[in-house]
Write a structure and sequence with these properties.
31% of the residues lie in helices and 26% in strands. It has four helices and nine strands.
């Protein structure tokens, strides 16, 4: 890059110029999390049951199968329930607070939706044998995730 003159190296470009040029060529940072917003859960209690009225809408935003999300929630809560496909609602056979459901949904998003490498929500779950793999469509990373 440089030529030796009397034991000293002469630099063709200075460090500041190269650094400035590098930062000019980097793509602009975008807030990835801002384009991925989950709708608020519409939770209703009917007797001893809890109903999530907009369950299908939440699953669609995550780009996950509603039955997969239902399986995760019911396993974490240690209870039973069923998914009403006609109305897009999840009926949980237990009294569950909205805060608990929100925490579980956030944990699901962090583990099974957001790419741990680039932070993009553009992922899909692929099953290879008994292992679930989180495949990122944005960066191509593949990450095994815990089974549910």
């Amino acid at each position: 890059m440089g030529q030796a003159r009397g034991g000293r190296i002469q630099l063709i470009y200075d460090y500041e110029y190269l650094l400035r040029r590098l930062y000019e060529r980097l793509p602009a940072k975008t807030a990835k999390a801002s384009r991925f917003e989950l709708p608020r859960l519409v939770v209703e209690r009917v007797g001893t049951k809890t109903v999530i009225r907009n369950f299908k809408q939440v699953a669609d935003v995550m780009r996950r199968e509603p039955r997969l999300l239902m399986r995760y929630l019911l396993k974490e809560l240690g209870t039973s329930g069923n998914y009403d496909e006609e109305n897009g609602m999840l009926v949980i056979n237990a009294k569950v607070s909205t805060a608990t459901l929100n925490n579980l949904i956030q944990r699901f998003v962090k583990t099974y939706v957001i790419c741990p490498t680039c932070g993009a929500p553009d992922t899909r779950l692929v099953r290879k044998g008994k292992t679930w793999i989180l495949v990122c469509d944005a960066c191509g990373a593949e990450q095994p995730v815990p089974p549910f």
